[in-house]
Design brief:
alpha/beta, 11 helices, about 280 residues, 11 strands, three-stranded mixed sheet, binds 1,3-dihydroxyacetonephosphate, TIM Barrel
């Protein structure tokens, strides 16, 4: 199946109250693990690619891997730019074959964020590519993006509603208390903000920083209108812990397949668990 925009998931996920997972690609093994999990769970899936990961993998390799994975998968797969920082990078990704983009203008003043996001929506929708926008700033560290917890600002519901009405993004990420990376304590998620915004706009809400959020909070967020959840750190932890353990047990191991293969399995198990939790298993 060719890559699909995220709009391919909206109707069914809204009707059946589940969320589709965005799992970030870091290399070939991540791509394979996420694809196999989607196939085994019969779940739609979103490949997230940050600008940092894109620089690491190469834009051409990234698109080629995602296309090969989608052809093999037999389930709907979207290739989505995560936290796109400019109109130029969004256009570069669309030209290269991405089926979906996020434009993150959350660090701009509201008016400027609306203006820039609208430009992206017009251009992307003209070629059938879906768009995610962001309001409020999500704390934590993800590649080039680093926001101190004190500087993270929650989305204001009235602004989020206006942002959606004016930009008509397909998915809206709002800062509600989650953060990129692992949490020190339990995240304090503002379910009231999710509820207020989700019940007033026509787009599903995106929850960034899905790693380490308790299962109960995830279920509640989905019941209130979250339709996409991003996970990266938990997969990175599973990958790296597996490699560390193998190399500690066999310090003379030099064949990368001997530790990357098991790491790939570990990532797959995490992704499968998330798909079940998000309710996206057995939907295709
Ligand atoms: P985590 O790394 O905290 O799971 O967040 C991923 C994310 O939100 C990507 O945009």
């Amino acid at each position: 199946m060719p890559l699909v925009p995220m709009t391919a998931f909206i109707e069914d996920s809204k009707k059946n109250k589940y969320a589709v997972g965005q799992f970030n690609l870091n290399n070939l093994e991540f791509t394979q693990a996420i694809t196999e999990a989607a196939m085994e769970e019969k779940s739609p899936v979103i490949f997230g690619v940050s600008e940092g990961a894109m620089r690491y993998m190469g834009l051409d390799y990234t698109v080629a891997m995602a296309k090969a994975a989608a052809e093999r998968a037999g389930v709907p797969v979207a290739l989505h730019l995560d936290h796109g920082s400019s109109f130029e990078v969004v256009m570069k990704c669309i030209r290269a074959g991405f089926s979906s983009v996020m434009f993150d203008g959350s660090h701009y003043p509201l008016e400027e964020n609306i203006r820039l996001t609208k430009q992206v929506v017009e251009a992307a929708h003209a070629v059938g590519v879906s768009v995610e926008g962001e309001l409020g700033t999500i704390g934590g560290v993800e590649d080039d993006l680093s926001v101190d917890e004190e500087d993270a600002t929650l989305a204001k519901p009235e602004e989020a509603i206006r942002f959606w009405e004016e930009t008509k993004v397909d998915y809206l990420a709002i800062a509600v208390g989650t953060a990129h990376g692992m949490y020190k304590g339990e995240p304090k998620i503002r379910f009231d903000i999710i509820e207020k915004v989700a019940s007033s706009i026509g787009a599903p809400i995106v929850l960034h920083g899905g790693s380490g959020v308790p299962d109960e909070s995830i279920r509640k967020a989905i019941s209130l209108g979250v339709g996409k959840i991003n996970v990266n750190t938990e997969n990175q932890v599973a990958c790296t812990e597996t490699i560390r353990k193998i190399l500690a047990e066999k310090p003379n191991e030099i064949d990368p397949r001997k530790y990357l293969g098991p790491a790939r399995e570990a990532i797959k198990e995490v992704v499968k668990g998330k798909m079940r939790l998000f309710g996206s298993s057995n939907r295709v």
